[in-house]
Amino acid sequence: MNVRKVLEKYNLKPKGYRDQIFIADEDLQKRVVDFAELRDGDRVLEVGAGVGNLTEHIAEICPVTAIEKDGKLSAVLNHMEMSNISVLHRDVMSVHLKNLSFNKIISNLPYSISTPLTFKFLDLDWELAILVYQKEFASRMVGEPGTMDNSRLALKVQYYCDVEILEEVPSEKFYPEPVTDSAVVKLQKKDVEEKSTGFWKIVKAAFHHKRKLVKNSIEDSAGFLGLEEKNIKDLEESLPDKRVYECGIDDFEKIETVLGEVM
């Protein structure tokens, strides 16, 4: 799809404040969809469908639920009368996605909500996601313990998914051209035991001070965790003797066990 021509046809201009940055390269549009290896029986969720430049390729193979917050763009999607498409004119962060039927996700995501939307996806049951993020954000998703790219995001994404950066995408492949490059990321959901809300709260608290030793970071986050500093001090010798960015899931499981004595 020629994005510029569609926008001109409907007399529309991209709204920067709504993260309206479209994949303009037509080969890339098709390649992003091809990465999902769609087949009969699949049902796709697309967030930020825009003018349908990915949607039309998805709909050629299987049904797609296209969520678009902008009323004018959702009207364009409906006007195109493409088959196999259900358009939701909604803010995705207010949608109960568990009520929708899909097993795959394909999206050029609104970059400003990348973190909360990714976490929202992780709480759902699906098989495969092909997502376009800012390159820096994608690098954080694959961050490993011991590197400064290690983060709450990296730990949670990698716990629930096998994650792979499929390709980096220069900014000129988009319209309007963003200030940074992007990346196409593949997430394959894993069959793992669900971690508690309390576990992820500890991870979040610790990464508020990722350069500090675990004991110091947890102590500084005592209020956030609802703990007394004096109680934490009594447990410091049992906490991993590492800086937070050096910690992996196993370390946080140990931290959760230790803090369980006073939480």
Question: Brief overview, please?
Answer:
This protein has helices spanning 3-9, 26-34, 55-59, 71-79, 114-122, 135-141, 152-160, 197-206, 214-220, 222-225, 229-233, 249-259; strands at 22-23, 44-47, 64-67, 85-88, 104-108, 128-134, 161-169, 174-175, 182-189. The chain is an alpha/beta fold and 263 residues long.
Please tell me about this protein's structure:
There is one protein chain. By secondary structure, the protein is of the alpha/beta class. The chain folds into two domains: 187 residues, 3-Layer(aba) Sandwich (Rossmann fold), CATH 3.40.50.150; 63 residues, rRNA adenine dimethylase, C-terminal domain (Helicase, Ruva Protein, domain 3, Orthogonal Bundle), CATH 1.10.8. It contains twelve helices and nine strands. The strands form two sheets. It has a seven-stranded mixed beta sheet with strand order 4-3-2-5-6-9-7. A two-stranded antiparallel ribbon has the order 1-8. Strand 5, helix 5 and strand 6 form a beta-alpha-beta unit. The mean pLDDT is 95.
Order of helices and strands: HEHEHEHEEHEHHEEEHHHHH
Strand content: 15-25%
Q: Biggest sheet: strands, sense, closure?
A: 7 strands, mixed
Global shape: elongated
* Contiguous uncertain segments of 5+ residues: none
Secondary-structure arrangement, i.e. CATH architecture of the largest domain: 3-Layer(aba) Sandwich
Average per-residue pLDDT, rounded, comes to: 95
Strand order of the largest sheet: 4-3-2-5-6-9-7
What is the helix content?
25-40%
Number of separate helices: 12
How many runs of DSSP E, i.e. beta strands?
A: 9
CATH superfamily of the largest domain: Vaccinia Virus protein VP39
By CATH reckoning, the class of the largest domain would read Alpha Beta
Radius of gyration: 21 Å
Secondary structural class: alpha/beta
C-alpha termini separation: 55 Å
By CATH, the topology of the largest domain is Rossmann fold
What is the number of independent domains? 2
